[in-house]
């Protein structure tokens, strides 16, 4: 439920009137303070109680505010007096801000080592102390960042070393497993060969091509002398038949050459 609307009139009860005055006075002082802070206004408040007691508030000075009020109200016929007062106030504020800007610019130039010829010994000493303190803070921050970077790099190095060791161990393990697999395969092959029956081994050996036999007289393979060994197909060409004739014609010469060689060897043995 909302509060009921209070009728604005004089409170007849003295006690209630005094309590209400204290509450409303504190609220008025609070509102004046908030107005001066929030709006940057120059506020002066003067309150007299029913007993003649004075209560006042001012963010600057009550007397200065009253004088300013009197100066603004000296010429009541001049309607532009308030505007002129405002213009004068803003001019003062602008001059104050310009002075602060000049001071800051001079301070920046002094920090850079410029325009120091007009400075006194005391000002130079103060500037030197400020610069030394600033350099000390800068070096401290730089060293802090450098140590943090070194710590990060060391941590990164340890991580890379651990990863490298892990990869090496993994490679070594893979090589060991591969060697074990190769050894197991060799053992399995040996076991299969040992368990293979003799007949099966003989059959596997019989599948190998037989060694060629040579004739002791002509030193030629017997298969080469066999005319039915090559070109047994019925569709042999003329060129193949000619080669076979040449081979048959050269065989007596080879036999003759081999017989002469045997006779020569026997003669050498008897000499």
TrEMBL record:
Residues 87-177 form the K-box domain. GO terms for molecular function: DNA-binding transcription factor activity; protein dimerization activity; RNA polymerase II transcription regulatory region sequence-specific DNA binding. It is found in: Nucleus. Keywords: Coiled coil, DNA-binding, Nucleus, Transcription, Transcription regulation. SUPFAM superfamilies: SRF-like. GO terms for cellular component: nucleus. One of its GO terms (biological process) is post-embryonic development. CDD domains: MADS_MEF2_like. The keyword Transcription applies. Residues 87-192 form a coiled coil. Transmembrane segments: none annotated. Residues 1-61 form the MADS-box domain. PANTHER family: SERUM RESPONSE FACTOR HOMOLOG. Pfam families: K-box, SRF-TF. The gene is TorMADS46. This is MADS-box transcription factor. SMART domains: MADS (SM00432). It comes from Trema orientale. InterPro entries: MADS-box/MEF2_TF, MEF2-like_N, TF_Kbox, TF_MADSbox, TF_MADSbox_sf. Signal peptide: none annotated.
